[in-house]
């Protein structure tokens, strides 16, 4: 096995210029690994790299330690030049991979942004559709209510109406007013008569008013009573607690 002889001439030429192996490699298109192997005598540069080195340092092959006696041209190509090119090839591939990674990461990040944008667009579209449906069908909101008075079976001429009226769900519009209504045999069956209107609760959620059945033209006998609740956006609920039947006895 041949003893490896360091190429001190090549190393000294580099150090005199205060260059690193990386500087030499960058200047001639090789790798620091190859330059180090040449200096340690582990490999011999090809004809191409010998010329590049001579041009770089402005020195002859002999001045850089490249002689035919040390390494025949055919041998340098068969053994050392092949190894050097393989090392360069691996290094260039690593550089190419390193340059490709940021592009791949950017493409992946762009795909994530596009996906997030699509999800946000779907959420916004869903909200708009819901809002449009709400505007087109405001009656979807129905305020609630419950009977308080009258509670007996018989009423006199003056009848006191009272009922609970409230938004059915939190966040819905406040109650605007309550219509207390009556209907009797012989009245127009297409509509109820408004007996009185309460526009302000006298207690929390309790609306009330007093009506004169005689003044309304209600005849003695069976009378049906009810109430309708309206909120401040025009939503209403007719007879939320159902109608009640009482006997009017003047």
Structure description:
The chain is an alpha+beta fold and 250 residues long. The chain has 2 domains: 8-99, Orthogonal Bundle (434 Repressor (Amino-terminal Domain)), CATH 1.10.260; 140-248, Immunoglobulin-like. The chain contains 5 helices and 9 strands. The strands form 2 sheets. Strands 2, 4, 5, 7, 8 and 9 form a 6-stranded mixed sheet that branches. The protein has a 3-stranded antiparallel sheet with strand order 1-3-6, with no helix packed on it. Helix 2 packs across helix 3 (32-40). The chain is rod-shaped. The chain starts with 7 loop residues before the first helix and ends with a strand. The model is unreliable at 70-80 (pLDDT under 50).
Query: What is the number of domains?
Result: 2
Taken from the alpha-carbon principal axes, the silhouette is rod-shaped
Separate helix tally: 5
CATH topology-level name of the largest domain = Immunoglobulin-like
* Distance separating the two termini: 135 Å
How confident overall, as mean pLDDT? 83
**Proportion in helices:** 40-55%
Report the uncertain regions: 70-80
CATH architecture of the largest domain: Sandwich
Describe the biggest sheet? 6 strands, mixed
The percent range for strand residues is: 15-25%
Query: Structural class of the secondary structure composition?
Result: alpha+beta
CATH class category label of the largest domain: Mainly Beta
Radius of gyration: 50 Å
Helices and strands, in order, run as: HHHHHEEEEEEEEE
Count of DSSP strands: 9
């Amino acid at each position: 096995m041949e003893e490896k002889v360091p190429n001190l001439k090549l190393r000294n030429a580099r150090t005199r210029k205060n260059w690193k192996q990386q500087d030499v490699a960058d200047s001639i298109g090789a790798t620091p690994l190859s330059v180090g192997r040449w200096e340690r005598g582990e490999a011999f540069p090809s004809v191409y790299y010998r010329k590049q080195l001579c041009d770089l340092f402005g020195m002859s092959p002999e001045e850089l330690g490249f002689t035919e006696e040390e390494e025949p041209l055919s041998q340098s190509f068969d053994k050392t030049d092949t190894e050097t090119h393989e090392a360069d090839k691996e290094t260039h591939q690593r550089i190419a991979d390193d340059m490709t990674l940021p592009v791949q990461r950017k493409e992946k990040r762009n795909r994530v942004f596009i996906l997030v944008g699509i999800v946000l667009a779907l959420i916004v579209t869903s909200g708009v559709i819901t809002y449009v449906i709400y505007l087109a069908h405001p009656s979807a909101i129905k305020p609630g209510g419950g009977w308080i008075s009258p509670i007996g079976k018989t009423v006199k001429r003056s009848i006191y109406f009272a009922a609970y009226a409230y938004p059915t769900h939190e966040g819905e519009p406040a109650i605007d007013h309550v219509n207390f209504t009556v209907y009797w045999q012989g009245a127009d069956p297409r509509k109820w008569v408004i007996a009185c209107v309460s526009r302000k609760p006298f207690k929390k959620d309790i609306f009330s008013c007093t009506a004169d059945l005689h003044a309304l033209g209600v005849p003695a006998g069976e009378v049906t009573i009810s109430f309708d609740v309206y909120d401040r956006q025009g939503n209403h609920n007719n007879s939320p607690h159902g109608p009640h039947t009482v006997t009017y006895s003047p």
